Structure formats: structure tokens, C-alpha cells
Write a sequence for this structure.
């Protein structure tokens, strides 16, 4: 019983997310205070992506880029398979999901992969870590361009979405420019960044919490909870579960069908099936500045927790499988 609860219990960050949503519900910021929080959040997001750029070793980029087949498969799963799955849920828009929640489902499907957790789970499972570093980072960078363009194709101007091309420029300025600047300064600041890795993890999480608080506070003032039935919230959670239940086995089957080794299959499964809350929330802040941002980010918040639980179980299964096969003459698969 204790073992299963430890797997299913929400992590501390998810509990902090829930507390932030509750705080924004009962104590949302308005007026000048909300405007000041918005400006401060923009600076925090820029700092976050500056540090992401400083953390990424150039050697990992070069080593990973050589494995182009693996990267093509991951990018196809992230930016082709998931958007098609999102469109498959369109019949639920209106009867089950509110329009804003369905936009949130499409947004979830258009997001890039996570970086830190994809690498961590790949390492835990005994997979190709350099390839995971490069694949997840490449997905995150391309997401700056592809996510707004995909949302333009999938949703048009629904949800108060900004013009996709204008959004790409704004997202590049806020996310990509700091990322590149951090990476160019890596020779001088890399050691300091590595020493502060534990502290910087909280910087990542704190920035996401700031954006979530601002987004939900604004949406609560506009009547988020009055406009969103409980049944629609439960439906959004079910959609997130179904998405992962389809994606992970399907991606695993595809990796094996294409003949990838076990070590390469692992980053394909984790990088191809995960979606980034840390990148998604800042992109949503720019892309849906005129819409119901709180409802739109709800599906990715739900998917975030589900993917952590499931991927932890899958990584442990890969690790046990590898341990069982170790010994004289054991193969890598």
C-alpha cells in the first residue's frame, strides 16, 4: 500500500501548483499590482531561459546531433502525432469540454518536450543520455517557433490567441534571445551555474508558479470557475490520461518497429511523450495574452502530474529489465 501511494502521491511541485491556484482563486491581484506582477514575471521568464542556455553543454549538442534518425522520430511524435491526437478530441469541444479547455488540449498537444525530467528519466532507465539532452533541448528550442504556428493551424484566432507570426517574434525575444545569450556566456558562467544547480531548480519552479498565479488570478477575476463546470474539468483530466495512454505505447511500438536499440528507444519514449509545463506556461502567457489563460493552461498542468507518475513507473521497469539481463553474454535489448 505504501509503495503504491509513494508512486501516486503528488510531488512537492504539484502540491505547490495546487496551492498557487487556490491562492489565486481567493486572493487574485488586480489593477496596478497585477500589472507589476506581469512585468516582474516577464523578467523572471527571461532569466529562466538565460540559465537554461547556460546549462546546456555544447559537447552534448554536437554528440546528439549526429543521431538524426532519433531526433526526427522524436520531433514527429511531438509536433505531428500529438497535434493529430488533439484534433481527434474535437467532438468533445462544446458538449463536454468548454471552448477554452479544448484550446488548452490543443495547446498541450502543440507544446515541445520537457528537458530536465526527460533527461532524468532517460538516465534512470539506462538510456542514451547525450541523445536525450540534445533531443529535449532541440524540441524546446523549436517549440518557440512551432508551437505558435501549430496553434495557428489548429485553433486559428480562438481563445483570444495572438497572431502566430507576431507571437513567434514576441516569444523569440522573451525566450530564445535569453537562451542564446546564456549559452554564449557559458564558458564564463558554467561553473557557477553547475554549483547552483539545486538552487536553480527552484528558480525554474518559482517562475512557473508566478506565471500560474498571475494567469489564474486574471482568469478568476473574469469568472473562470463560474464558466467552467466540474464535469468539464474531469473531462480534461480524462483527456490527458487518454493522450498519454495512446502516446507512450504507440511511441514504444514505433521505436521498436524502426529498429532502434534499447538505449535509443528510451529517450524516444520519454522525449516523444512528455510535454513541457516550464516552457508551455511562458509561451501561453505571450500567445493567449487576450484570452482565458487560466483555463487554457489547466490541461498541461494536469498532464504534467500524470506524465511524472507514469514515466517514473516506466523508467523503473526499464531499469529492472536491464538489471535482469546483465551478465555474461547479455545483450543490450
Amino acid at each position: 500500500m505504501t509503495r503504491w501511494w509513494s508512486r501516486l502521491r503528488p510531488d512537492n511541485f504539484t502540491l505547490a501548483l495546487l496551492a498557487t491556484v487556490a491562492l489565486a482563486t481567493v486572493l487574485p491581484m488586480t489593477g496596478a499590482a497585477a500589472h507589476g506582477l506581469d512585468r516582474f514575471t516577464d523578467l523572471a521568464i527571461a532569466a529562466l531561459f538565460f540559465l537554461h542556455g547556460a546549462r546546456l553543454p555544447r559537447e552534448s549538442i554536437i554528440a546528439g546531433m549526429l543521431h538524426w534518425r532519433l531526433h526526427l522520430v522524436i520531433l514527429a511524435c511531438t509536433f505531428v502525432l500529438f497535434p493529430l491526437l488533439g484534433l481527434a478530441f474535437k467532438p468533445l469541444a462544446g458538449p463536454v469540454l468548454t471552448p477554452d479547455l479544448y484550446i488548452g488540449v490543443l495547446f498541450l498537444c502543440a507544446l515541445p518536450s520537457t528537458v530536465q525530467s526527460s533527461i532524468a528519466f532517460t538516465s534512470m532507465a539506462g538510456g542514451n543520455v547525450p541523445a536525450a539532452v540534445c533531443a529535449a533541448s532541440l524540441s524546446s528550442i523549436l517549440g518557440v517557433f512551432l508551437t505558435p504556428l501549430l496553434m495557428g493551424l489548429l485553433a486559428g484566432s480562438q481563445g483570444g490567441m495572438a497572431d502566430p507570426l507576431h507571437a513567434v517574434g514576441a516569444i523569440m525575444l522573451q525566450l530564445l534571445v535569453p537562451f542564446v545569450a546564456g549559452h554564449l556566456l557559458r564558458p564564463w558562467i558554467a561553473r557557477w551555474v553547475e554549483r547552483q544547480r539545486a538552487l536553480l531548480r527552484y528558480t525554474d519552479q518559482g517562475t512557473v508558479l508566478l506565471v500560474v498565479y498571475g494567469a489564474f488570478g486574471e482568469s478568476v477575476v473574469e469568472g473562470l470557475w463560474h464558466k467552467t463546470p466540474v464535469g468539464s474539468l474531469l473531462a480534461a483530466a480524462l483527456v490527458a490520461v487518454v493522450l498519454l495512454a495512446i502516446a507512450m505505447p504507440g511511441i514504444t511500438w514505433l521505436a521498436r518497429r524502426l529498429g532502434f536499440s534499447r538505449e535509443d528507444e528510451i529517450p524516444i519514449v520519454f522525449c516523444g511523450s512528455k510535454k513541457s509545463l516550464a516552457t508551455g506556461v511562458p509561451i501561453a502567457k505571450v500567445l493567449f495574452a487576450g484570452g482565458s489563460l487560466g483555463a487554457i493552461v489547466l490541461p498541461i498542468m494536469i498532464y504534467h502530474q500524470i506524465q511524472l507518475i507514469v514515466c517514473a513507473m516506466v523508467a523503473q521497469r526499464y531499469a529492472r529489465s536491464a538489471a535482469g539481463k546483465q551478465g555474461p553474454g547479455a545483450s543490450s535489448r
Summary: Residues 23 and 213 are 8 Å apart (CA to CA). The chain has one domain: 13-23+31-319.
